[in-house]
Design goal:
By secondary structure, the chain is α/β, with parallel strands linked by helices. It contains ten helices and ten strands. This is Transcriptional regulator, LysR family.
Length: about 290
């Protein structure tokens, strides 16, 4: 019996970037705009990639470029390969990055999004000292305006600073495990004091569908508000990052309105950001385009 060793193809990074762009935009046209190529060039690149891996990566029905099972599998690897490539290049290009970087973060992301990012970049830039400021989004935007922080994660939508969407998360209605929800009574709300993006979101959506409500508990910190919700004092609107074993979710089946997704934006200060801030911001921006 003859055995022929099968050679492993080398995947080209340009092909992978375009492939991820197609998956993100669900079309060749959207990918073409993202990677600054013509739609015909994008199509040729995807044909080349499929030839390299020997599998169909896109379903052939309709204009939308839905991924096949092999395409979904390939997408995970493509993102990992691009992430490692970009991290390696940035680490070597900016190995002399040092100083102190001050990053602002709301409570929602301080224990979810932020730790993973900081862990990776502290390894890539060991000379860099990072300080974290945890405050609510409106306060962080004020700090960014006053140059008190170099970068900030915020739910506030602003065109005053360079930024992009770091993550989009669903907003949900949370209550304690033993909370007794009675749709015939005004909804007891747990909220942070002003200013609060989620408080305004909850009240506006309840008013739109005519659900009566009352403020049952107001806290100055998210941990205090969460404790009140877990204790059964009321219901709170918040991003999915709040979820834990001591809470459960109420939804449309309970008669509550569906809440919009919340965007966690990453902003960098406009006034002479230091080198470390620019490197980290551009690194995260490039990675975000690969997601």
């Amino acid at each position: 019996m003859l055995y022929t060793k099968r050679s492993i193809p080398n995947l080209e990074l340009d092909l992978l970037r375009t492939f991820v762009a197609v998956a993100n935009g669900n079309s060749f046209a959207a990918a073409a705009e993202s990677v600054h190529r013509t739609q015909s060039a994008v199509s040729q690149q995807m044909q080349r990639l499929e030839q390299l891996v020997g599998k169909e990566l896109f379903s052939r029905s309709g204009r939308n470029k839905a991924l096949t099972e092999h395409g979904i599998k390939m997408l995970g690897y493509a993102r990992r390969i691009l992430r490692l490539n970009d991290e390696a290049c940035l680490s070597l290009m900016y190995e002399d990055v040092d100083g102190i970087l001050r990053i602002g973060s709301p409570d929602d992301t301080a224990n979810t999004i932020l730790p993973e990012l900081l862990s990776r970049f502290s390894k890539a830039y060991p000379k860099l000292a990072i300080e974290i400021v945890v405050k609510r989004s409106p306060f962080l935007m004020d700090m960014l305006k006053n140059d008190d922080v170099d970068m900030a994660i915020s739910t506030v939508e602003s065109v005053d600073f360079p930024g992009f969407v770091l993550r989009t998360s669903p907003s949900l209605w949370f209550c304690g495990q033993n909370y007794e929800f009675n749709p015939d009574e005004p909804l007891a709300l747990v909220s942070l004091d002003e200013p609060s993006t989620y408080r305004n979101m909850a009240i506006n959506h309840l008013d739109q569908v005519g659900i009566p409500w009352r403020i049952a508990y107001v806290a100055t910190t998210l941990s205090g508000a969460r404790a009140a919700v877990a204790a059964g004092l009321g219901v709170m609107a918040r991003s999915i990052e709040l979820l834990g074993d001591d809470l459960r979710i109420l939804g449309e089946a309970d008669g509550l309105p569906r809440l919009p997704d919340i965007k966690f934006n990453l902003y960098i200060r406009r006034n002479s950001p230091q080198k470390a801030a620019k490197v980290l911001f551009e690194s995260l921006l490039g990675e975000n385009l690969n997601e």
